[in-house]
Amino acid sequence: MRPTAPLILAAAATVIAAGSLTACGSGSGSDPDTVKVAYNRNTDNNVRFKDQFLDSMKKQFEKAHPGKKIELVPIQAPDDDYATKVQQMMRSPRTAPDLVYEDTFRINSDIKAGYLRPLDDYLAKWPAWSHFVDTAKSAAKAGDGKTYGVPDGTDTRGLWFNKKLFAKAGLPADWHPKSWADVLDAARTIKKKLPGVIPLNVYTGKAPGEVAVMQGFEMLLYGTGADPLYDPAAKKWVAGGKGFKDALNFVHTVYGEKLGPDPSDALDANINTTVGTELLPEGKLAIDLDGSWLGQLWLGNGTKKWPEWSTTLGQAPMPTQRGQAPGEVSMSGGWTWAIPQKSKNAALAWEFIQQMQQKENAVRWDIADAQIAVRDDVAADPKYLNSMPGIKFFTSLVKNTHYRPALPVYPQVSSAIGEALESVTTGDSTPAGAAKSYDDQLKSVTGGAVVDRTG
Amino acid sequence: MSTASRTGTAPGTVTGAGTGTGAGPGTGSGTGVRRQPVRWLPLAPATLLLLLFLAGPICYCVYIAFTDMQLTGSSHTDFVGLANFRRALSDARFRNAVWLTLVFTFVSSVVGQNTLGLALAGLMRRASRPLRTLTGALVITAWVLPEIVAAFLLYAFFRREGTLNAVLGWLHLPGQNWLFTLPILAVSFANVWRGTAFSMLIYSAALAEIPEEITEAAEVDGASGWRAVWHITLPMIRRSIGTNLMLNTLQTLSVFGLIWAMTRGGPGDRSQTLPVFMYDEAFNKSLIGYGTAVALLLLLVGSLFSVVYLRLMKVEV
Q1: Which end of chain B, N or C, is more open, meaning fewer C-beta atoms within 10 Å of its C-beta?
Q2: What's the ipTM?
Q3: Which among B58, B92, B311 is the nearest to A18, CB-wise?
Q4: Total-model pTM
């Protein structure tokens, strides 16, 4: 054997390793008259309302600002991959867009990483800012007290149920569960009376990403007691919480008793598309723990036209674990428009935000995207209030809603929750075992900043 | 997006190994010491570019592996020494990924691609011409398909409403979601399906090199069937076996697109090989430093495999 052989092999293997990590990133150009706008295009090619809205904003803007251009940079990917791609773009001045659409739960990580620039100077001179509700204003506020993004709506979550299936199973059309046990009882009844129908969908596992963690797990967790994930007084994350185990146990019950979708479907990355476009409209799913935006799929220009949905589906608030005060629970998130630190065209990008947030445009957007309004003037607009059946219901959930701890490590905590969910759903580990390995990961990602509530 | 660019690195792997092996004899056969500087001159621009675009990022990667660099959530990066490596070794998910990588490589590359490629090459030598052409065409089709296309084809084959279960149903056998119940075997089979052509080509070439007289002489001496294969054919193509195993293994170790598209490493961590684990840590969890350290450990696994082959086969590279 020649001595060069291992060297060559080592070099070859290094190339593999290096090649895998230095992927992505292209496109440059810093035309001072062009605003590059990065946003997430829906992975379903039939859903194009965001593209259409932004396209009409682009036309409006270019007409109002002769000589200036908007360049839309759609990124067609699931949310997790979209975030990764945008973060890679924002790392370098050559690739940084001038405006990005950011999920509120990721914005603080990106602020901490130095990707975004504060907007306070702009906001101070912007009359429309006073119409934004306080919770929404704080959604994109960092630890330094500065605001880094303009939210364009929010969302809430609750139980959707199929009234026709409920009637067949002998359950009430004005269903209003008071506790987790009530939800499980209804699901068990459906399993017994209507074989072939999936009784209850609770998103779970790693592949659906934040969909499973927020719509699924946290809707349960925040119904178990105060501050179950993060203790704001101690400024520490919560390990060993009983609520955490109880919530995992609920998921374990749903999939263990076969009340949910088949685990191999539930753990598919596209489960939320399947639920919205197949399972619910085709009457194969009785109860779905899901978001306020579902109606947008079935409206005029949505993916799956389903005009009867407003009479077929009912909505109920998700109850707390044992019905303890305030009796119901919801989670909220939403997206914001933010300007990257390395943008070379921030002032013009701000002009474009203002354009999109002119009241008429804001109303149009909240209707098109089935968003819950974050501005009092939009929320009071009759066009908004009558845009979709159920919008009053989901707006009413705002009073008992929770925001996720929007801290830089949250995405990693979320990822650890996804793993715990997956292992419970596949039966690879017990709820207690999964909670234990979550605690271990939590300690690792937070650098030990945890309070232990075991006991 | 990242998946697509990732798939793009697969051909790079082959080129990397290819140029490597090519350079070996080249440097050794240099004659005329005085002329050498002049002979290097035309290569200088290429060497410079290689240093800039290959060695540069590689050194950067090695550096990152010793830091706590993150994609988001932290604006500054500190040198952390061996912390990433220690973390990997104490991480149960990392150990699981190493184990699955070994299973995946052994089943799909060492046993599957290698043996099946040799068998196909042997059978094709005896087959009629049209049959040989047809088999060759089919196997090579699987090889030229882009990794991501092959992945979707096999996803469609293995999924619950897929072809495999349709065939099983037709035979009155029970079907199941193979990607869920036997994920690591499903992706291993996919890799065999895709990569066998390469082994087959190498072995076809090697078998064609065996002189007719030797085979005939063996037959005259009474050695036939398995004895002839074991005592004559295999020793004569020993070097090809070594080369093939090594190239196969190195490529299989870095398979990412196939697994990502078919199972995403799931369910649970049951098909999470090292490249998928590395992607998950570096890009889903934004821990670029840790992910790079895992990549370097993957390199170590690859080198170990190679050294073992080199020893076993005593081949010259």
Answers
A1: N
A2: 0.71
A3: B58
A4: 0.76
